[in-house]
Each structure stands twice: as structure tokens, then as C-alpha cells.
Amino acid sequence: MRRSLRLMAVLLAVTSCAGSTAPSLRAAELQADWVSAPATARSASIDAAWWRSFGDPVLDELIVVAERRNLDLRLADARIREARALRQGAGAELFPQLNGSAGISTGRTVGVGGAVLERTAATLGVEASWEADVFGRLRAETRAADAVWAATVADRDGVRLTLVAEVARAYLEFRLYRTQHTLAEANAKGAEETLRIARARFEQGIASRLDVERALTARGETRARVAQLAEFAESSRHRIVLLLATTPEELGGVLSETGALPSASALGVLLTPTEVVGLRPDVRAAEARLLASIARREAAEALRYPRISLGSMLGLQSGSDGAAVLSAPSLLWSLGANLLAPLLDFGRIRAMIDAADARQEQAYLSYELTARVGLQEVQTALILYTQGELRRSELADATESARRAVGLARRQYTEGTLSLLEVLDAERTLYTLELQAVQATADVSLRLVSLYQTMGLMPPNPEAA
What we know:
With 465 residues, the chain is an alpha+beta fold. The protein is built from 11 helices and 4 strands; from the N terminus they run ααααββαααααββαα. It has a single domain, classed as Outer membrane efflux proteins (OEP) (Up-down Bundle), CATH 1.20.1600. It has helices at residues 2-18, 27-31, 57-69, 71-92, 137-203, 209-244, 248-252, 273-279, 281-302, 348-414, 420-455; strands spanning 97-110, 116-132, 307-321, 330-340. The protein is elongated and about 140 Å long. The two termini are 21 Å apart.
């Protein structure tokens, strides 16, 4: 609710500042053609740490290490510290500035008749200055710095969300390739058994040499696939190494070769359009930059009005003439005010205001585009997930049928009632379906990761404070 109210406040602010030229982003437009999550997903609440729904402690540990060591995330943390410091500096401009001063000077004066007079003076004091922010220029710049800091925090959230999603994808792909590698090895053993039967039948004179060559071909294809899947698994492993900024040796203590392919259901993924707009880091960053552009426009407008500054000084001064030592110090003080108002600048301030107007419009258009792209990505991810579930279910049924068909084909070939070509065809069909079924299961999990990522689901950012 707070995010929705904030969204409406931003839209009202932009409308009032930009006038009729600013496009609108109404809730009704966001709601149009919105694709809901499956009915089964409407009963549970959303866990921001969505990767825990896979129930895989290895994945949980990999994400913990990635959040601690990833270089992109550490770079984003440094940007937050920079923005926080600039925000503090902008806020300090609202308060008086105190400066200590100390100095000594010496000079020589030539008087009438050639008389030379030397004088030395020393001063020690404290100076104070303060700009009275009557027309809000400094306050506007402070709000702009606040918004820039908020945008930087949102950018960091985006990097963090992308990192978690990429670690999850790389891990799921690693488990997928390892599972397919296991299936390929099992299929290679089946090909060896088929080859053994073909050779035995050939030696008995009840099968031709062609059957043996076909069996050899099937075995070679399967062995080649085993090597290829091992290559894919290693590629995914090194992708995880890069994301975690670690080494293969260190990762070996966490990531084992064996393990089940994790899966999860899409419980609690139903969100309204305004909730998605409020959660996505890129939308929040665009919103913060829009607020910054509004504040900078106000600061530019304030340049048209006078600037009033106050100054004061309190100190001690002592001096001497000739070779005399410094005299006893005397008290010095001053208090003054200064007013600076633009009279003739040949359109400089007007140009700055016009430029700020254009930047504000750009920021709003960027915000609306980011919001609409985000909603489209979520809708696409929902559709892909639901269709992936259907495909996985159909392939699971087809795989079971193909497995029974292979058993029947091998038995009938042994009995001599079926040709080897039909056996190889049944085995090839089973192997293909097994690979596709595992791929479909992984695709459902990968699409669920994309769905959570497009919705912007993440636990609170520890660097936001």
C-alpha cells in the first residue's frame, strides 16, 4: 500500500510540474491485459528469499558466498557509499560554515624624507558564513542528492537480484547437465547391451553384420553425448566460480558432482501491477531519478531569485612597528549581510530551467518505459512458466511410455520377432525423451527463477540504511 501511494504521489508531482506535455501512467492502464498467476499460486504468501523454495542447501550456500564476494556487488556497495557521502555533503550546505583563520603579514612604508616604517601584524580568529535558503535552492539540491542516493541503492538491489538469479541459473544448469550426463552414461550402458546381443546373434548366424554396425553407431553417438554433457557441466561450474569470485578448488568443497536437480512450485507469485512496479529495482531507480530531476528543476528555478548570505568574524589582532615586539592583541569582530540578485544574464538562467524541464521529461518517460517493460516481462514470464509446466507433465508421461516400449522391443528382439532397427529406434526415442523430460523440469525451475527476478523479489537491502 505504501508503494502504491508513493507511486501515485510521484505521478501527481510530475503532472503538476510538467503540465499537459507529460504522459500519464494510470493504474487502469497498468491493469489492462494483466496475466494472473495460476490458481494454485494464490493461497500462499511470497517469500522474498525465493531461492529457498528449491530446498537445496548447496544453492543457499552458493548465494550466501556470492553476496559476500561477488565483485559487481562490491562495486555497487562502493557506489552507495559515494552517494551517501554526497548526500551528507549536500545536507551540510544548509547549515552555517565555521572556519578558523590565522595569519601574519609584514610590510614596509617609505614616508616623506625617505623615512622607512616597517609594520608587522598577526591575526587569529573564527569566521562564520551562512546562506539563508529563502527560496529553497539548497533544500532542492539536498532532495536531489537524497533521490540520487535512493536510485543508487535501487541499482544495487538490481545488481543483487541479478546476481542471485544468475547463481541460481548457473547452479540449475550445472545440475541439469550432470543429470543428463548420468542419463547418457546409463544409455551408453544400454547401447553396450544392445551391441552385445547383436554380436551374439550375428555369431549364431541369425542376424546380419548390418545389425552389429548399427549397434556400434548407436553406442558411438551415446558416448559422444556423454563427453559433450561433461563439457557443458564444467562450463556451468566455471560460471559459478566467476559469480562467486572464488576458485575451482574452493568451489569443490561446496559443489559436488552428484545431486538431484532441484525444483519448486510457484506458490505465492500472484502480484498486482502496482506491486510489481513497487518491487522492481529498475523501476524504483527510475522513480528516484525522476524525483531527483524534479528537485533539480526546482533548484534551477530558485536561481531566478536573490541569494542572501550572512557572515561574521571574531578574532584577535596584534602588531608592531619597526623592531618592537608584537603589541598586546586587540579584539576584532564584524557582522555583515550580502544579497546577490540576477539582473542581466542574457538568458543563462532561463536556459538552465529549460534544460531542467527537458531532463525532467526524459526522466519521466524513462520511468514510464521502465515500468511498462517490467510489467511486460512479468506477464511473459508467467506465460512461459505455465506453459513449461504443461510441457513437463506431457513429457513425463511420454517418457514412461517410451521406457516400457524399450523393454518390449529388447525382449522381442531377443526372441527374434523384432528387428534391431526397431530396437535402436525405441532406445533412441527413450533417450531423447529422457533428455527432454529432464530439460523440461530444469526449464520450469529456470523460468520460475526468471519470474521471481522480473517481479523484483528480494529480502531487504542491508546497504540501504
